[in-house]
Design goal:
The protein is mainly β. Helix content is 0%, strand content 48%. The chain starts with a strand and ends with a strand.
């Protein structure tokens, strides 16, 4: 069983930065690929970024490429999402999710992930 807890959300002005953390209590966290998704009010939960179990491979939604960076520290059972140059349209609840090692073609699919955190709110003011 993998339990995920997100933290680091908050209120920031446009152009600012935040770093989200996704911490796991599972001993086998290093065996899992991890994705970040976000959901704005009234919208679907969309893919943001993913990182494979070793950290060697990362993937990003086009809307965040060049602004966001995903990384992981398996010794700390934690995955990070560094968010720079934030825009009001980045406002959403951000969720991390963990799943078994995935083909690159599936990292953006919600149903690829077995475990989800409770989410952390990110609000970007204009």
């Amino acid at each position: 069983q993998v339990q995920l807890v997100e933290s680091g959300g908050g209120l920031v002005q446009a152009g600012g930065s935040l770093r989200l953390s996704c911490a796991s209590s599972g001993r086998t966290f290093s065996n899992y690929d991890v994705g970040w998704f976000r959901q704005a009010p009234g919208k679907e939960r969309d893919f943001v970024a993913a990182i494979n179990w070793s950290g060697a491979n990362t993937d990003y939604a086009d809307s965040v490429k060049g602004r966001f960076a995903i990384s992981r520290d398996n010794a700390k059972n934690t995955v990070y999402l560094q968010m720079n140059s934030l825009k009001p349209e980045d406002t959403a609840v951000y969720y991390c999710a963990a799943g078994p090692p995935l083909p690159r073609s599936r990292v953006a699919m919600r149903n690829s992930y077995n475990y989800w955190g409770q989410g952390t709110q990110v609000t970007v003011s204009s």
